[in-house]
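Protein in question passed on here:
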Amino acid sequence: MSLLLALSLLLACGDSTDPGNGNTPLQLAVTEVVGGLTRPVHLTAPVGDARLFVVEQPGRIRIVQDGQLLPTPFLDIDSIVRSTGNEQGLFSLAFHPQYATNGFFYVNFTDENGDTRVARYTVTGNANVADPGSRKVILAIDQPFGNHNGGQIAFGPDGMLYVGMGDGGSGGDPQGHGQNLNTLLGALLRIDVDGGDPYAVPGDNPFGDEIWGFGLRNPWRFSFDASSAMIYIGDVGQNTWEEVNVVPANSAARNYGWNVLEGNDCFGGGGCDPTGMTFPVIVYGTSSDGCSVIGGYVYRGAAIPDIIGHYFYSDWCGGWLRSFKYEGGAATELAEWDVGDIGSVLSFGVDGNGELYILSQNGIVYRLVDGTPTQQ
């Protein structure tokens, strides 16, 4: 099945083939980079840096250098992180755009009380070790329940720090956070970490506060594609639909629908008024395809030219790898790739050169590679 889908993708792309393989349809594979990790949930690196920085959910950031997992963590904050549930812990890492000169990086985690904290740390004189005592809390948000904490942070092309916040948990958004502009829950936040202490609200934020977009249930992973100036948001659904939203990165005040909508449908059945809401570009049902969408990245690396511009994503229960290309306001060239058993996918990552990685609950980090057979 995946070969046929790959062939469909090949035909949709025109004469897109691996230069050394004649007309052999493109196939993808994965190669194991490192194993033995504990719930690896994020991977990133400063631009051009050959190292990999891998976030472990219990509260550590590990470095992979020259193919080896270094024994000493880059940062270990296990003692201040609550990670007792699947949706609590240390979630993500974002290097400041001027990291090379200021040594600042930011993390998103749930503290001992289960509340969201975004904090800044500083690297030491040893480039492989950060100073745990340099912690400066940038943003503190109380969490009413132990799930739907969001967790992604990322600097956008505009230099602002974006924070994905879930609706606060339980089920069905019982406190109505998704459509409430008086809370920072259920929203995509945008702050200026260089404009104030601890941050400033950008003057072009639409509501005069930190909120950039709202109506989100649990945006576990979002990412920017700087080449197309778009943002991709994988929002975990409730009972029926998982979704991926794609909008211009500069489009503020978007209402993504939760808890009026789940996917394209009125949540809970019955009628609703979706006027002014942004609909996803991809939806899939939990009854057949999975349970929790794992948002990924648009591929902009150099190793696999035929998939440049394709967005990759997965599902924690489904264990599959899918992609699409966003063109003309719609998802095109949809494909599912047979890359073997990669376990339960927890997250994706991109290295300092734009290559794509898959992080599995089995403790392994995989790199996406060209798996097209070579002709003899």
The first helix runs from residue 2 to 12.
